[in-house]
Amino acid sequence: MSNNDQSLAQAMKEESEEKTKDAAEETKVEEGLKKKEDTDPETGTEGGDGGGGDDGSVSGFLMSKKEEKWCRALLGVRISAFVLCLISFTVMAADKVEGVVIESMDLFGNFFSTEEPYSFRWYDYKEFKYSLAVNVIGFVYSGLQICDLVKYLITKKHTLNLRIRGYFSVTMDQGFAYLLMSASSSAASTIHISRSYWVGEGVHKFTDMASASIALSFLAFLAFASASIVSGLMLRFN
């Protein structure tokens, strides 16, 4: 083999070694860039099943504990609304009094008073029937909400999607708060008129029982308003 052939073979061998070396360096650089992309820039740990998974577990645990705390607070408000509605419509349903009504008449300039037996019954007044109906429905609704919350606290599983349930609860709570305020206001006006118009034995007992029922209905309104606020906060946090 001539000197020219040997020089050419040596040059080709050196060129091949340089290409192999460049390819190895490029591969090394690509592996380094890939590793850098997989690394968490804040913690310096690699992604995947490393630190990110632990952070997700901790975050989920804290969120679960926070949700459980708010659910316990909401459960207390629900129980208050349940009890208040129950007592309110029970008192109203028992408001039946047998009494005597004193009626005055003016006959040719002479005044006469007569006493007539009269039965005071809550179902004779549409405002009282409205108030009782709203409290009964609020009682049933609160009972169902209590069962759902107790189920969640025991099983840690929601019956409905959390967001759908949140919107439903906020809407229903605000609706019942409005209905209770409306019913209580109309019944309170009827009590005031009855006290001004009726005179006789048993009138005050009848209106006093109705007043007690309306007062509890107002408190139930506050409970539903509070439940609406708590449900809204839970919806916002989640």
UniProtKB/TrEMBL annotation:
Location in or out of the cell: Cell membrane
* Taxonomy, superkingdom: Eukaryota
Q: How does it sit in the membrane?
A: Multi-pass membrane protein
Q: Does the keyword Membrane apply?
A: yes
Comp. bias intervals (Basic and acidic residues): 12-38
Q: Give the CC-aspect GO terms.
A: plasma membrane
Compositional bias, Gly residues, is annotated for 45-55
The cross-references to Pfam families, in alphabetical order and at most eight, read: CASP_dom
Transmembrane segments in this chain: where? 73-94, 132-154, 175-194, 214-235
Q: List, for all copies, the residue spans of the domain called Casparian strip membrane protein.
A: 70-223
This protein's record includes keyword Transmembrane: yes
- Which intervals of the chain are annotated as region Disordered? 1-57
Oligomeric state and partners?
A: Homodimer and heterodimers.
Give the UniProt family note.
Belongs to the Casparian strip membrane proteins (CASP) family.
User: Which named protein is this?
Assistant: CASP-like protein
Which organism is this entry from? Lotus japonicus (Lotus corniculatus var. japonicus)
